[in-house]
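thought: fold this chain, then report.
action: predict
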Amino acid sequence: MIDERASKRRLPSPPPARIARLALVLGAAVLACAAHADVIVLKNGDRLTGKVVHKMGDELTFATDYAGTLKLKWSDIAALATPKPVSLMISEERVLKGTLGAGTSAGHAVFIPAPPPGAPKGEAPPARDIALADVRFVNPTIEESGAGILWTGHVNAGGASTSGNSTNGTLHVEADVTGRARHSRVLAGGEYNRATSNEIESASNWRARGEYDRFYRNKDFSYTRATFEHDPFKALELRSTLGVGIGYQFYESPALNLSLQGGLDYVVVDNIGVPDQNYAAPAWVLRYDQKPFGLNMQFFHQQDGTVSLDSRNSIVLHTQTGVRAPIGLGINATLQYNYDWTSDPPAGRFSADRTLLFTLGYAW
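observation:
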């Protein structure tokens, strides 16, 4: 007769090592069945099929037919298989091309290199076991691989013209270009504004900027930058700055970019009708843009400023805040608010200039 107390007694749980081995065997079996789709086994046991698109940092972009494009944490992946070749960068090595299969342990994969061009059929470098934690990029972009520079940017313009009882006109043109290489970045941009009222010029100014960044350890960078500004309505013939400093890139991706940098600028101001100025000034630059909640719409904010060491009351600030929405074929519409402020304007001038802009442009 069966003892009811014994039948109700909980069976002993298998040891953790046995569970890990069982999970690994199951994961290998699942991966071995992947003939056409890429397969991922997460550390919690979930299995996903689809296509590996790109890996950077701790984020893997994985495309599926049933759930769209997923963003997965690379550190959550226990096993990975790609029947078709992918490109890998392991640590600081060159780009390698091949397929991935189940590894010898959780968090590992077997990398099977593709035969080099011109190699005899059947000959290929030997397979090797790799730790997924050592993979820096999967399918790296041109700038991530070090093979070239990725150029992005936009050109926007807006204006208005009125004739009849009054004759008015406004024009605004701006452009920004960024070139990103593996360990460096080049930024350049500028804007031009002009306005007339009854054929009398009421605004005419321009500003240009350029910067070179050198990256260290992925996110830390040093920079050299220069800016030039002309605005006779501020009694400013030319303000020139040359600065150096350090910065940190908190985020860098098509969906989110955030960086903060600070250093020391040398400023030369050629004024109109008032004494010129030359001074050193601590400086900062903040750059932010984001496409929140998966929207194909970009919010942005950028500001840069200086504080004179000769007079702490001498502060210059430039900001640009707005939203940019795509229309199609690279054409975008932008609603933007610019706020420029100086703490010690010449006599008879205002401290702040505010501009609300609606522009159309092209982005690449």
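thought: worth noting. The chain is about 5% helix and 60% strand.
final: tokens above.
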